[in-house]
Write a structure and sequence with these properties.
The chain contains 12 helices and no strands. It is mainly α and about 260 residues long. The chain has 3 domains: about 45 residues; about 80 residues, Orthogonal Bundle (Cytochrome Bc1 Complex, Chain D, domain 2), CATH 1.10.760; about 80 residues, Orthogonal Bundle (Cytochrome Bc1 Complex, Chain D, domain 2). Helix 2 packs across helix 3. The longest helix is centred in the first third of the chain and has 29 residues.
């Protein structure tokens, strides 16, 4: 049989092979240029053409990572930066101590809660200030906290945050995040599930703006907040940092992390 007859569409086997290869190629192109971009896009792509352009690496219209899309709400009204708090003097801390007298029932006389609410003593001032602002604006809904902070000025919130930051924490166990007894999610995260190491942000040594220290907090409180981030009931995290970090965690892992940080 000559080559002309083998490589001819009149040859049924050759025609079927060409058709099969073309079909697989078309299916692969649809997966690579349409399905995958739509499945992994942070926002729904507007059209088939947008999906193809995204897969091909064509630049999309610029949108800052921390900015919401059209019709979406900002996760917080606070602009977080390393210099967001400025300097605090003794007058600021003193005013904060006076204001904190109304907080002692839930957060303790020295900022250490006896009732399962967050410990505020030793927390970074930027973290406490951001949460107060978010409570007041409704970005972090709370039937208890919202009315309590409604009449506080921005200066009052900064002074409260400065006062609690000035207090010494009563308990942080001297255990390094890399210790072998530390849960793997704290030490290394789980890269295969896009979960970062908790210690990269939540460590007494990390000092990231507006990021709380978790050591010694109530196990019940921690479990509730992690679950709220995972389930979307809490969404005042900038750039979805916490929601992205915990979205793949199961209940057992959340319980393990809460128990670990509460024990320190």
């Amino acid at each position: 049989m000559s080559d002309d007859k083998v490589f001819s569409l009149r040859n049924g086997w050759f025609a079927w092979s060409v058709g099969a290869v073309a079909g697989v190629a078309l299916l692969g192109a649809m997966v690579a240029f349409v399905w995958l971009p739509r499945a992994h896009a942070q926002a729904t792509l507007a059209s088939l053409w947008d999906a193809i352009c995204s897969a091909a690496g064509a630049p999309a219209p610029f949108q800052g990572a921390g900015l919401p899309g059209p019709g979406q709400r900002n996760p917080s009204g606070v602009i977080v930066s390393a210099t967001m708090m400025g300097e605090h003097d003794t007058a600021s801390v003193g005013n904060g101590a006076t204001l904190a007298m109304s907080c002692t029932m839930c957060h303790g006389a020295r900022g250490t809660s006896p009732a399962g609410t967050p410990h505020l003593a030793g927390q970074p001032a930027s973290g406490t200030y951001k949460q107060l602002r978010d409570f007041a604006s409704g970005h972090r809904p709370s039937a208890i906290m919202q009315p309590l902070v409604a009449n506080l000025s921005d200066r009052d919130m900064r002074d409260l945050a400065a006062y609690y930051a000035s207090l010494e924490r009563e308990r942080i166990a001297a255990v390094e995040p890399s210790d072998t007894g530390t849960p793997r999610l704290v030490r290394n995260g789980d890269p295969m599930r896009a979960i970062g190491a908790c210690s990269s942000c939540h460590s007494p040594h990390a000092e990231r703006p507006a990021t709380p220290v978790l050591e010694g907090l109530s196990e019940i409180y921690l479990r509730e907040q992690l679950t709220a981030f995972r389930d979307g009931r809490r969404n005042n995290d900038i750039n979805r940092q916490m929601r992205n970090a915990v979205q793949a965690l199961n209940d057992r892992e959340i319980a393990e992390l809460s128990r670990y940080y509460a024990s320190r």
